[in-house]
Design brief:
The protein has 147 residues and is an alpha+beta fold. Helices cover 70% and strands 8% of the residues. A 4-stranded mixed β-sheet has the order 2-1-4-3. The relative contact order is 0.07.
């Protein structure tokens, strides 16, 4: 009986050895993958740093323009704008009407509301998401002019 137990335990030891080899092989392959991903991460980080350095000058100019524009805007409107920008992950507070829908939440804007937006008489916000709505022509013109 004890000889059978010894043979059984020897078999368990042999199985554990095979399992250990398999796990070590999996560990090695995983470490290789980790090293590859870390190398890719370093490359991407270097690219990102390069892009940040290239766009740093543009960013400073735009920040200065933004500061100048903020001085000319009513503080109440500016705080509402900042609140809207902060509440959305993409930071868009002013969105165009695209295909009869809000450019932020994509809910349909009624034709009467679109007409009011095209007249530019007052600031109109989306009923669903609260973003400021502008017509596509104004949105594109602002993008082109860089204002």
């Amino acid at each position: 009986m004890q000889e059978l137990e010894v043979k059984l335990n020897d078999k368990h030891i042999k199985d554990a050895g095979y399992e250990l080899k398999d796990r070590n092989a999996a560990k090695d392959s995983t470490q290789d993958k980790i090293q590859e991903v870390e190398e890719q991460l370093k490359e991407k980080k270097a690219e990102l740093d390069k892009i940040i350095n290239e766009t740093g000058k543009e960013e400073k100019v735009l920040i200065e323009k933004s500061a100048e524009a903020k001085e000319k805007v009513d503080p109440r409107l500016l705080t509402a704008y900042e609140r809207i920008r902060g509440s959305y992950h993409n930071g868009l507070a002013v969105v165009p009407i695209v295909r009869d829908s809000c450019g932020g939440c994509f809910n349909v804007i009624p034709p009467q509301r679109q007409s009011e937006i095209r007249q530019h008489k007052k600031i109109i916000v989306c009923e669903h998401c609260g973003r400021v709505l502008v017509d596509v022509d104004l949105h594109d013109k602002v993008k082109i002019d860089g204002k």
